[in-house]
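Hi team,

Below is the intake form for STAS domain-containing protein from Nocardioides cavernae. Please confirm the fields before the structure is written into the shared record.

FORM ID: S-0412
PROTEIN: STAS domain-containing protein
ORGANISM: Nocardioides cavernae
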Amino acid sequence: MDIVSDIVADGHVIVLHGDFDVRSTWEVRNAIYECIDVHDDDVVIDMTDVSTIDATALRLLAVATRHAWLAGHHLTVRNPGPAVRRMAHLTRLAHAIEVERVAATA
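The structure came back. Fields below:
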C-alpha cells in the first residue's frame, strides 16, 4: 500500500494520489485548511487517484467540510472511486461529505 504520497494544490483544487488513511490525514488536513484560509473560492478535493480510504480519513473530510462551511466556503470531493464511496456509506459519513455532481454525457 502506498499512502497519499502526493498532495498537489492547484489553486483551490487539492489532488490526492495513493491510499488515503490515518497515516496521511495530518498532511491532507493541513493542505485543506491552508487552502480554505488562503483562497476565496470553494475547495475541491480531487480523489480520482485515491484507491482506498479509511474511516479516519473520511472523518477528516467531514470535519473539513464543516470547517469550510463555517468559513463561508464549500468543500466538495471530486471523482471518488467505488472503494471510497463504499467506505463512506459503510461509515455513514456519506451524508457529511459533498460529492461534486458531474453532468452525464450522452
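SUMMARY LINE: The chain has one domain: 6-99.

Thanks, M.
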